[in-house]
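Two proteins follow. First one:
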Amino acid sequence: MTTPDRTSEWPDSADFAVMPNSLKSAVKSREFASGDHLFRIGANPVSMFYVLSGEVRLLRSSVKGAEISLQRTRRGFIAKASMDASSYHCDAIAAERSTVLQFPLTVFRGAIEGDAAFRSAWISCLSREVRTALAQCERLSLKSATARVLHFLETEGENGILILTQTRKVWATELGLSHEALYRTLTRLEKEGIILVKDNIICMSRR
């Protein structure tokens, strides 16, 4: 369902602070129920999407039919590589009720080409995503569940403190682990005094 533009809800970020009015005036705000597709694999990209609230996941199936999670976004642009692609290489599905800003791709491209400040902000946005992807690749190359959990705490936490914004089952998928393996690892690390766990907060022990 398409609803009127909600500029009052837009994030207070550099991406929007420098966004040209031509792009702001073209945006639409859309509501997606849990399980709804924003787009499907193979479709021709015609929009750029920004998750305002809720959660959207980029998913693809392996040759054996297993679900592969490529990206999980609760706030920010998704599928940025689609701007130069002829078709989507994955599905985008709302994991819960979500509000998404939808920008016409042709207008978005024009804003990047014609506005230096917005182009610089977009490059910075892409750079952050590359750093995140590199950290994810490094993490998945680690052999043990313990190493992956501690790596996530170090790279995604702040001052040794991680506030989970997803369920532990979803986190396990992001770590490339079964949820049983993640639970066992967290329990053991807490018993060994390496981490402290309270609800959705996990932090490195100061001992």
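Second one, unrelated to the first:
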Amino acid sequence: MGATGAKEPAEPGVVHHPPATGAPPWRAAIAPFVVSRLVSAALITAAARARSAPVPFGGFAKWDGGWYTLIATRGYFHGFLNGAESPWPFFPLLPALIRALHWIGPSPALAGVLIDHVAFFVGLAGLYRITSRHFPARTATLAVWAIALFPASFVFSMVYPSAILFAASVWAFDLAESRHDLMAGLVVAAAVMVRPNGLLCAVALAVAVRWSVRRILLVAGPSALAFAGWCWFNHHRTGDWLHFLHAKRGWTEIDLVRFVLSDRKIAIPHVLLALAAAAAVVVVWRRLPQAWVLLSALYLALPLATGMVGLGRYAGELFPPFAAAGEILRRWPRWALVGFFVACVAAQAVCVYWVVYLDYIP
């Protein structure tokens, strides 16, 4: 109907609820954000101090956080040497944001933590907003609590790109559903520039916009340009268009074959967390938008070939499983909900102990 702006037909099997009439999304995110970040900060600090490690770099800026803060201060300072780790696998947006905030005053580690906290809060608000569009408001509330207290959610308090990826993916889908396609594309491009997993969001958005060529160009075009720009930078600095990918050889990766046949211990927690996320999607998949199911499948399946260490972290930054979890939890009695979230915090304490105290990779 042209000028009247008729809506597209609803996706089969998906019920669209009117926006929640209560608190705005940001207000619904405050309590889960504050409670969960206090819990995560306390656990990380306690684990770092228990092993007499410096709290910033022995806890909040541990593992990849050290690389991101180093890139923020020194740039991509050396190339990939066969068998050696290097800064090149780490994409540039998070170090650039850290560098910009560090210029104002905070240390690189503190800057990274502050950026991640802001991104996580924005992501929680977006999760409430988009979930309440497809499910009742109670489901949206429980979805926000579920991701905030998920056992791997302590990573949202560390210098990792997970909070940015979570926020970018959920808002990209929300903007696309509202037909703000170019804005959605720019947000996805930001996700790509923190980690190449963001490209999977662009693929899923192509389904979300019903394969409309014009809309695909808007939602995925900026990501393609951003990724091409990063490849050009790699070639300009090193002579290798895919230097960031080849540099991953400096890390020992565990794919599905290796996990089954030999080296299993380090990847088991990641697999368990990913299975929990996948199970939530499977239970509710008929009530989820097809693009959400596709995003979950791509995000959880690809690491089986590229490297399973980090899979638990990826599961924790993927928004559809938590919308699904909220819908599952909505039917539980209050005592069961309390028990579930207490168990989540206990599991998070175990994960923090495993990562910060025992030195395993999150």
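SUMMARY FIELD: The chain has one domain: 20-75+85-227+253-357. Residues 20-75+85-227+253-357 form one domain.
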